């Protein structure tokens, strides 16, 4: 990346609207978007059917995929906005699976050890945007987009993820952080709501240059 280019990342629970906001901000600021390749993930359907069996495979796939994405961002000269970060897997998804008894301690320790090695080779984003949402908002958005493999997501799983997101964000010190409460926003369909987000992002970006 050049000295003037930025790495922005959008984080948040399943159904928070990360991909939609990433697309909209990329278009508005002329940033290069990097998306989570869910449709290419060979484990995702199996994982939601049998989390215990496939949790380690799933997390290793994501770790490799996101690390490659960061290397790609580093090689380019454009400002980039990324849909979800490598840090969310390590701080939220993998510990949650382990905590729920869906990943063995042996597998979790292997994952953590590899993540720490990767972490030493990468830089956190210049700005992290966190989309905060209550469970009913997440459920509504998950149902609306109708991904078949997400039909079996349990409410307690979403709730646990939300708790871990809040704990992670409350201790986030790696860079600039913008928290957006989306429960009362419809940034996809209401230009005034998207305008509110743009104003907040603009004020954060002014401090990055």
Explain what you see.
The protein has 209 residues and is of the alpha/beta class. The chain has a single domain (7-206), classed as Rossmann fold (3-Layer(aba) Sandwich), CATH 3.40.50. It is built from eight helices and five strands, in the order βαβααβααβααβα. The protein has helices at residues 18-29, 44-49, 51-75, 86-99, 105-119, 135-145, 155-170, 191-206; strands at 7-12, 32-34, 80-83, 127-132, 176-181. Strands 2-3-1-4-5 form a five-stranded parallel β-sheet, with helices on both faces. The radius of gyration is 17 Å and the shape is globular. The two termini are 15 Å apart. The mean pLDDT is 90.
Largest sheet, in brief, is: 5 strands, parallel
Say which CATH homologous superfamily is assigned.
P-loop containing nucleotide triphosphate hydrolases
What's the CATH architecture?
Answer: 3-Layer(aba) Sandwich
Low-confidence stretches: none
Which strand order does the major sheet show?
A: 2-3-1-4-5
CATH domain topology: Rossmann fold
Helices and strands, in N-to-C order? EHEHHEHHEHHEH
Query: Count the helices. How many?
Result: 8
Strand proportion, as a percent range, falls in 5-15%
Coarse shape? globular
Q: Approximately how much helix is present in the residues? A: 55-70%
Instruction: Give the C-level CATH assignment.
Output: Alpha Beta
The total number of structural domains is 1
Structural class: alpha/beta
Put the structure in a nutshell.
The chain has 209 residues and is an alpha/beta fold. The chain is 55% helix and 12% strand.
């Amino acid at each position: 990346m050049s000295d003037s280019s930025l790495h922005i990342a959008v984080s948040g629970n399943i159904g928070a609207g990360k991909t939609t906001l990433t697309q909209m901000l990329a278009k508005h600021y002329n940033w290069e978007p990097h998306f989570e390749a869910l449709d290419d993930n060979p484990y995702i359907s199996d994982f939601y059917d049998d989390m215990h069996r496939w949790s380690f495979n799933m997390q290793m796939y994501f770790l490799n995929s996101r690390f490659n994405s960061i290397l790609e961002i580093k090689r380019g000269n454009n400002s980039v906005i990324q849909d979800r970060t490598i840090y969310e897997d390590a701080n939220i998804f993998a510990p949650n699976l382990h905590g729920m008894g869906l990943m063995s301690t042996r597998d979790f320790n292997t994952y953590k050890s590899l993540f720490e090695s990767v972490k030493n080779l990468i830089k956190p984003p210049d700005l992290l945007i966190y989309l905060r949402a209550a469970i009913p908002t997440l459920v509504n958005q998950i149902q609306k987009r109708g991904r078949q493999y997400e039909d079996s997501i349990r409410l307690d799983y979403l709730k646990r993820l939300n708790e871990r997101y809040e704990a992670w964000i409350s201790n986030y010190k790696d860079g600039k952080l913008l928290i957006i409460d989306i429960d009362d926003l419809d940034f996809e369909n209401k230009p005034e709501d998207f305008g509110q987000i743009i104003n907040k992002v603009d004020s954060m970006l002014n401090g990055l240059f």
